[in-house]
């Protein structure tokens, strides 16, 4: 049985622990980080024994306050709210072209990426921290997070707006040294609301898995100053986005250093016709036991959403060394955007502990 202790557990990681052994940009300082933020979030280092799976309602969208309608309407290929032209941030003349858009939070770069490998075309949004465009960091490579939304993720990604306040947390935290200055990469997750692939290449469907795990990272490495794959890369998602983050990281050992699942699930048994053994073998729940790399996992679940707690605990039991998993329980948390938002300080503290700090080439 898993023993859950009430109260606040706080630990620290010393400055520079993330990415030790590399030369950090001298202007980026990481002070001691809280391992647990707030009294409502409990980190549990154990998990429930595996038992019969009871899957949540498939592809659950977060409830109150989480409608993507604003994002959906503003991410049209022809119009976008407060959109204005912006120079491409690419390193080379043939880089991807971006415009600047704002969904009520901070400016993000937007592009439609035509995947050279997948043949899939979808939008990708990129947010860079305040240090990125500072001339003092012109020769600095930054850690990068690939972030996936809840719901179907067609035409929107709610990491781009104030749904989670993720940009604000990292903006402020990177200025005061409490978190690393991460680059956010926020792609669409489906080509259509009617084509549900769970970020996986499914028979007879668009190769969305290849788009997300091959084409998007290739574009980011080509056009942005980010650290190479490995300890400088992390991925996270909420609800269905957590499934995607987990699946993509597990399909590519060595490319990611840390994964955060917020109210996630780890197989797609419901409402999908593609249950062939070859597809089931790609479920995170199937990939985790034999995973050949090293990943640090944070599995966030609200205590008022028992199925989310069960999913986190069961998956934690599947994670084997040298990977590690922590289950973080939000006291009173629900499968709601408001609960996901409340977890953001813990999410970025975790990534700052486990991922490499920015590195200067000079």
UniProtKB/TrEMBL annotation:
Residues 49-98 are annotated as: Disordered. GO terms for molecular function: acyltransferase activity, transferring groups other than amino-acyl groups; hydrolase activity. Keywords: Hydrolase. InterPro entries: AB_hydrolase_fold, Esterase-like, Mycobacterial_A85_antigen. Coiled coil: none annotated. Residues 62-93 have a biased composition (Low complexity). It comes from the Bacteria. PANTHER family: DIACYLGLYCEROL ACYLTRANSFERASE_MYCOLYLTRANSFERASE AG85A, ENTEROCHELIN ESTERASE-RELATED. This is S-formylglutathione hydrolase FrmB. It comes from Kineococcus rhizosphaerae.
